[in-house]
Amino acid sequence: MARDDTGGRPPSEDYWDGGYAEQGTGVRPVPADLPAGLVEALGDVDGRHVLDIGCGEGDLAIWLARHGASVVAVDRSSSSVEVTGRNAAMSGVGELVDPRVLAAADLDRLDSLFDLVVGRFVLETVEPFDLFVDALAGLLGADGRGVFYVNRPANPAVPFAPDRIAALKKRFDVTQRNEIVEVRRTL
């Protein structure tokens, strides 16, 4: 994987593209399971319109599609989006996964409301966070919710900043259980 020389700033598109270039952009089998806590938080996704932010290689998007969701999978890295598309096709769910190159700061460009917005390890790094929170509020349908898998709160290597939870609480009802942060629109 490419080295992160960002001095603590979020890794750039070049960083992520470099990592995928080093790994190659070939397809690979996608794990069939997700962490139990994440599966529980996601609930029944059959028939849901889902946005996967920071899709990486597509593991979460493919799992969602295998369970009946239609998924828009976005990442700022064109290489990862390419890998997501190939992995989805190889997994037999290519028609349910719509991979797109899009940075989290540009989520307001999506012209759709989603039943569910998900991401793994994105809340820790997405910048600018205030724009992300505003965009998230505009993407969730009336009964929509967000489910985010974060690094373990006790992980000293990648601490999850309490100021990010505080920023989310200004716009959403927020529940945090271990590695799961769930947000729901406030009325």
List keywords for this structure.
globular, 187 residues, disordered N terminus, 24% strand, seven-stranded mixed beta sheet, single chain, alpha/beta
Please provide the ordered H/E string of secondary-structure elements: HHEHEHEEHEHEE
Task: Indicate the percent of residues in helices.
Answer: 25-40%
The 3D shape can be described as: globular
**Strand line-up of the largest beta sheet:** 3-2-1-4-5-7-6
Structural class: alpha/beta
- Main sheet summary: 7 strands, mixed
Radius of gyration: 16 Å
If you average the pLDDT, what whole number results?
A: 84
Count of β-strands: 7
So how many helices? 6
What is the end-to-end distance?
Answer: 43 Å
Beta-strand content estimate: 15-25%
Low-confidence stretches: 1-10
Explained architecture:
It is a single chain. With 187 residues, the chain is of the alpha/beta class. It is built from six helices and seven strands; from the N terminus they run H-H-E-H-E-H-E-E-H-E-H-E-E. Mean pLDDT is 84; it is low at 1-10. The chain has a seven-stranded mixed β-sheet, sandwiched between helices. Helix 1 (13-23) crosses helix 4. Helix content is 31%, strand content 24%. The termini are far apart.
